[in-house]
Each structure stands twice: as C-alpha cells, then as structure tokens.
Amino acid sequence: MTTVNRQITLAARPVGFPKASDFALVETPMPTQEAGQFLVRVVYLSVDPYMRGRMSDAPSYAAPVAIGGVMGGGTVGRVVSSQHADFQPGDFVEGMFGWQEYALSDGKMVRKVDPLAAPLETNLSVLGLTGLTAYFGLLDICDPKPDETVVVSGAAGAVGSIVGQIAKIKGCRVVGIAGSDMKVDYLTNELNFDAAFNYKTVTQYEDELKKLCPKGIDVYFDNVGGAITDAVFRRINPMARVSICGQISQYNLAKPEAGPRLLSILLMRQAKAHGFLVFQFAARYDEARAQLAEWVRSGKIKHREEFINGLPNAPRAFLHMLAGGNLGKQLVKISEP
Ligand SMILES: NC(=O)c1ccc[n+]([C@@H]2O[C@H](COP(=O)([O-])OP(=O)(O)OC[C@H]3O[C@@H](n4cnc5c(N)ncnc54)[C@H](OP(=O)(O)O)[C@@H]3O)[C@@H](O)[C@H]2O)c1
Fold first, then answer.
1. Percent of the chain having pLDDT more than 70?
2. CA distance 70 to 110
C-alpha cells in the first residue's frame, strides 16, 4: 500500500468566485492508526455549495477551513485496516472524510452502507444529505397539498431535482427554474415537471411565473435567492410556505446585494418563510432514507450523478458545480470501490 496520502487544502480565501489557485494539492505521510481507529480509502467525494462558505472566514453556522487545512466534505469510502470493534476491512462507510485519498476515523458520525442495497454513490446523492435536504425541506417545512403549485429554484441540481419529484408524488403542479435550456428540457421531459424556465435567457421572471403559475404559487423551495426569489415572492398566494434551503446566487458576491424589501408580502399574504439546516432533522434520517429508497425502487424518483475523476480534479469539480455545469449531483471519483 502507498505510504503517501494526497490531500486538497485551502491555499487562499477566495474573493468573489473561487479559482483553482485557492486550493493546493499536497502529499502527506499516510496517517498512523491507533487503537479504536480505522483507516478509510475514499471512493467518492461530494462537492457542495456550502463548501464555498467554509472557504470564507465570515461568521457562519460552522467553523471555516483554516488556510492550509484539508477541505472538508462528505464521502463514501472503504475500510482498509481497522483497530475498531465495529468496523472491519472491506466495509463501506459514509462520513465526512474530506478532500483526501485516505482518512483515519474513530467511527463517530460514520454510517456503514450496503453496496448491494443501492449504488454506492447514491449515499451522497438521493439517499444522502442531498435527498434528506429535499425531503425535510419540502415536506416538513412546506407541507405541500395536491393541486398546489410548487416552484423550485436550482431545480436541475442535486437537491432541486429531488424536491420537484417529491412534489409531483404529492400531486402538485411543479415549476422549475434552472440555468440552461438543456436543464429545462431535462426537468420537463425526464423528471415530469409541469413547466420550467431558463433564468439566463428569460429576462422578466415575474411575467414568466405569472404565465407558468396561473393559480399563483403556494410553495416555494428556494435554493438560490437573489432576483429569482424576489420575483417568486411577488407571486406567492395567501398562506404560501417558503423553504429557504440555499442562497447560492449570493455565495460568491464580494459585496452583499441590496435587494428589494419584501417582508410586507409575507405579512399581507399571511405566508411563512422558514430557513433550515438539514442537520436539525438528524433524528429522522432513517425514516426519510427508507421513504426515498422506496421511491427510487418504484421509479417515482429518478436521480442522476455526474463524476469527475481523481482527487487533483476535486477543485475543478467544485468550480464546475458552482458555475452550473452539473445536472443532478456532482461527485468526484477518488478511487475504485
Ligand atoms: N439548508 C441545507 O441544509 C442545505 C443542504 C444542502 C444544500 N443546500 C443548499 O441547496 C442549494 C442546492 O445545493 P445542491 O447541493 O443541490 O447544489 P446543485 O443545485 O447541485 O448545484 C448548484 C447549482 O446552483 C446553480 N447556481 C449557481 N449559481 C447560481 C446563481 N447565481 N443563480 C441561480 N442558480 C445558480 C447552478 O445551476 P443553474 O445552471 O441552474 O444555475 C448549479 O448547478 C444550495 O444553495 C445549497 O447551499 C442547503
């Protein structure tokens, strides 16, 4: 076995959209395992929008990555050696092992996964935090009812594509907003969304929403914030529910945008907007994962993963995702399962 562990560290705090030079590929000695620990070889790494927040030292709900620190991230991997009673060599595990080829673990916050129950990579997509975010953010926060109109922004991405399909399962009219014609086509022709539009070519978002949501908007699942969300807010119905999942349009701004002040819309329409972090639902992950797995098995939810190969390409995969290059879930394949 190799004696070297390659890692991607944070080289510089980005200003605006991150660049490849904000990351460094480093080689460190393979970590030495002690009693109660096991060594994992990372197989798949998830690249996620929240990582942009960790690269910054602005106050947030989680500590930033230190300059020179290994980038954190969700992974699945395989145990290669173990001095831990509950984990054996050959076991597949999911955990936050970060942007590196090998990681030591004490087993805390690590979940064993069965590669025969579902493809390994789905533990980072529809059956991972992505699917759980869609499930709780839509069902718990918005409680969508049959025939209601649900709008999803970031609709062709990892979370958004699952949200829209769950809303279809609940009998809703579903309208997606995404950043290319190809994504719009995917949503309406492959995922059965009722309508979708490309926010990069449509200029009058509110007019488009009026056309595509003739009965107004009852539920909005917000992945992006910014001008798209401003337009959706103006079209919400009385008693609407808004799930604030992400604000990706704001993550790379060097200066905060001055937006319109829309809280009076919530007041007048007696609507609810509720921010959430998926971790608040941790006690119910098993329940949600079982339901998501059942919907996948029965063909009610389709999922898609895209792969970029090799740890050195993890920064490229991350930047590709931030720029909207992904359809479904963006992953990095670090090694063979
Ligand atoms: N609250 C939570 O616990 C939680 C958990 C997971 C994720 N999230 C949030 O959920 C959102 C989606 O995450 P994900 O993992 O599913 O990522 P994703 O949607 O697979 O990838 C990000 C997508 O964001 C879109 N995007 C980038 N810049 C944009 C902009 N300026 N305006 C509009 N869209 C833009 C791009 O698609 P287009 O081509 O459509 O632009 C890109 O594909 C993110 O905001 C993330 O922070 C929240």
1. 100
2. 18
